[in-house]
Design a protein that fits this description.
Distance between the termini: 56 Å
CATH topology of the largest domain: Beta-Lactamase
Number of strands: 11
Radius of gyration: 22 Å
Oligomer: single chain
Shape: globular
Helix content: 40-55%
CATH architecture of the largest domain: 2-Layer Sandwich
Structural class: alpha+beta
Length: 268
């Protein structure tokens, strides 16, 4: 006979039938949600490059549209999906799961990095939000011997990086408050972060001067596409000796690059 403990370990409720045999009552709500999320991820990955409509996802996993819609919005908010004209596509954060392979971004994004690096001769990057972390998906490195060389597909902390400030500035209020409680619980620290991200919301430019690495300057701007959550940013990083006196000009160029990508198609 199955015990309550063994049933719990299997993630399903167990009752006893009239013949004394255990009867599985099916997965718990938590396990059902995990199964749905994984199925949706697999379906959208398999549908590339055409994407999937909400109705198709709902039918494929035999779940109500309302439930699927909530899960799809959550996956979009964390960068695993991208929504475009009623269809869901692979999001940039997918590559962080695989640690190899395509970024899920159109070639336009890489071209923009090439243009930025060509003008400034410093390293430019595309960053994505993954949970409470940043993952750099693509970069074009500076031709200079001394340069920033970001490691791709590796999670790094949001704060105090310039891209992280952009993601925090445009994060859903509840999610932002949860982040602050977990990572910046001290009142003074919380207020410092709030003030910094308020400036980023106003200017759409995140700046990091020596906060992560004493001799580096980082400038970033969010890619804001319609009503979609902000999960992408353009950033440029270089030595303070070369960029320290040019932060304002660099900020303008990075913001223009991010704005151009905000108008770019999400695939292709």
């Amino acid at each position: 006979m199955a015990t309550a403990g063994s049933a719990s370990r299997r993630g399903a409720a167990t009752s006893i039938g009239t013949d004394g045999a255990p009867i599985e009552a099916g997965p718990t709500p938590e396990h059902r949600t995990v199964a749905r999320v994984m199925s949706m991820l697999e379906l959208v990955i398999a549908s590339d490059p055409n994407g999937m409509r909400l109705a198709d996802l709902s039918a494929a996993i035999a779940a109500p549209k309302s439930s699927v819609h909530g899960l799809a919005k959550g996956l979009s908010a964390t960068g695993y999906f991208r929504e475009d004209r009623g269809r869901y596509f692979i999001g940039p954060a997918i590559s962080s799961l695989l640690a190899v392979g395509p970024t899920g971004l159109p070639s336009t994004f890489h071209h923009v990095l090439e243009e930025l690096t060509g003008k400034w001769q410093e390293t430019s990057m595309i960053a994505t939000l993954v949970g409470d972390s940043i993952v750099y998906l693509d970069s074009v490195e500076s031709p200079n011997l001394i340069r920033a060389a970001p490691e791709l597909n590796k999670r790094v902390a949001l704060w105090p990086r310039s891209s992280g400030k952009c993601f925090l500035a445009f994060m859903d209020v509840k999610r932002m408050e949860s982040y602050l409680r977990r990572h910046h619980p001290e009142a003074n620290d919380t207020e410092r972060v709030r003030q910094a991200v308020a400036r980023v919301r106003e200017t759409r430019i995140g700046i990091n001067i020596g906060e992560t690495h004493a001799d580096h300057v980082g400038v970033a701007s969010p890619v804001i596409a319609s009503e979609s959550p902000v999960t992408l940013a353009v950033a440029m990083v270089g030595p303070k000796s070369r960029l320290g006196d040019h932060v304002d000009e660099l900020g303008r160029d990075v913001r223009l690059a991010a704005e151009s990508l905000s108008q770019a198609p999400l695939r292709g």
